[in-house]
Structures are given as C-alpha cells and as structure tokens.
Amino acid sequence: MSKTSLFASVLLCAAAGTAGAGGQAGSIGVGAEYQLNGIGGLSVNYDAGQFHVGGSLGFGDPAGPNNTVFQLAGRFYYHVHHSAFADFGLGGSLGFSSEPVMGGNRQALVYLEPGFEIRAFLSSNVALSATGGLVIGVADADGVGITGSTIGGSAGFGLGGGVGIHYYFY
Fold first, then answer.
1. Which domains does the chain have, with CATH numbers?
2. CA distance 51 to 23
3. Is the pTM value of this prediction over 0.70?
4. Which of 29, 108, 110, 120 registers the highest number of CB atoms within 10 A of its CB?
C-alpha cells in the first residue's frame, strides 16, 4: 500500500462519524400514534436526546350527519435508559377528544395518562413505540375502564396503553 493510499484511508476513517441508531438529539419524527382510549392519529415527535415530546392529531367523519370526531394529544417522556437501538422513558400524555352524542350535542373527553414508553429502532431512523400506564378520565370520561374504552359507571380511571411508528429526520 502506498503512503498516499494509507494517508487517504486514515483520513477517511477519522472523518467518518459514528453510526447512530435513532433517538438522536435534534431529530424530528413523523408517523402515527394511538392510545387504547381511541385518541390518536398523525403524529410528530421532537427528540431532544434526554427526552422527547410530541403530539398527534386525529379526525374522523363516520357515516351520518353531524358526527365528526376531532382528537388532539400531547406527550412527554424522559429517557431513563437508552441503548443503541431502544430507549425507555417515563412521562405521560394528555388527550382530548370532541365527539358527538345522542341529541345532536357534543362531549369533550379529556384523558391524563401517566406511564412509560418503550421505543425500539428497527433501523437508524424508524422507531416502533409501545406505551402503558394509567388512564384517568378528567372530563366527560368518567366511565374509562381497563381497556380504555367507555364502559359506563363512575370508575374514572383504568389501565391503558398505545402503539406508534415514527420515521425520524436528522
């Protein structure tokens, strides 16, 4: 090997960055995220390295008049532990859903969900996420049950979770 080739090889190795596996500070992820209580839709995450924040926006218009559903959610997770291809965060989400009810009225369902999130990176910038925790019905959602769906009664809380997928740009 000539000195020029050796010098070029050393220079190339020195200039190359380390390979990362997502969850990189300053990256933005777009995708979809759904909570078991039904709130979710298109989603955006901002990963700040030690934590990530995000939100989702959902819209539905089932068959029939005056029955449009609008959903909005925000979340924050602090990364307690991370590895090259995954992280584990503690935090939670706040969800809002405006839904039609009998008689032409609407109800505003508000959910507070403290819990955890695990993100597994399938590649350097594609992440699957799974969340779990408590679902607390804050307004008009006093019948939240174990599955996160309305079951009637006055439970006001239950166990819940969600799933998501995001593509990160950096």
1. 24-169 (2.40.160.20)
2. 9
3. yes
4. 29
